[in-house]
Amino acid sequence: MAELANKRIVLGLTGGIACYKVAEFLRRAQDEGVTVDVVMTDAATRFITPVTMQALSGRPVFLDTWDNRVPNNMAHINLTRGADAIVVAPASTDFLAKLAHGMADDLLSTLCLAKGLCPLLVAPAMNREMWLHPATQRNVALLKSDGVTLLGPAEGDQACGETGSGRMLEPLELLEELIAFFQPKRLAGKRIVVTAGPTSEDIDPVRVITNRSSGKMGYAIARAAREAGADVVLISGPTALPPPFGMPCIAVRSARQMHTAVMNEVQAADIFISVAAVADWHVANASTHKLKKQAGQAPALEFAPNPDILAEVAAMPNGPWCVGFAAETDKLREHAQAKRQRKGVPLLVGNLAQMAMDADDTALVLFDDKGEESLPAQPKLQAARQLVQAIAARLPRADAP
Ligand code: C5P
Fold it and tell me: Residue 1 falls within a domain, yes or no?
């Protein structure tokens, strides 16, 4: 799935050690089909050579306002015409100050002023004291009010040996942010809680009973909701997936832990999307020590029902707008509509377990009070983005973005 096919960006590098990360960002962005025109400030060329950026981008690199390779000598105008975005990464303290105050004393700052409607995204990279300095924070506030999009910065270890806020995002995080930027913001400002993955119910300290769920669908929905502008909290049972970027991820194991986490988080939520494969029962006679194997014998397990998290949230007065999931092995339509009514949710998403389990693709069917709508088989992130659009379209008027 080439996420940035047919897009062209202007990639501006300013002076900072994070320039080395931008070479990798360029490579990974090209994997997604984007064309990149690189512009570098003089300070950027002290950290990484134009040769490197030209070899990687496969296009001439621009350094100078007076570049006579451009027929009309107006690189500062031409480069952004028809471009889908300017991405300045790394963006130094000095460059943010210049942008905020409309200075135009080199090619990159000049083209940022001459850009017209071309969106401008900046990825700050600097020492934590420089980032926290009131002058920088003032400039950042000015840039935001001018409609500039901030990508990061992140917290962590810095090249100078200090630790704090001001690190540039990692290359793949930058790429995810750029991809997100181009998604429609149909859920801007909404607070969304998503559950994902299986739950794991203890038999004893080393043995569990669980459901088969990779977590891929729930994680894709959490990402798609964030791309659509929502503030997302993910509550996840045990999966092999890395925590998604840009949202808190609360790790739980059992259904009862998931229940507690959901009840804490949904109080402030507008939408609850229950994708997790929650175990229906836990082991009532779970052992606190490891059960010993005895020849010819098996333990007798007793089960007790788990709370139905979705039904409970759906029944809350003034609770969030709820979306349930159903993975069925057969008779999807009958089971899904019955489940939707039983749980009392406005939207229930069905899929066939034998197709969706562990797979990277899925074919979802949406069931609501008007009937059903089938989405095509497609990668889970694509399906998640369509589902997010479908949710935005179904929100009651007062909740609609
Ligand atoms: O039929 P079932 O109760 O498994 O319905 C599945 C839907 O209900 C999913 O959205 C799942 O996340 C949710 N669920 C729940 N609590 C349970 C069982 C399922 O929230 N104990």
Answer: no
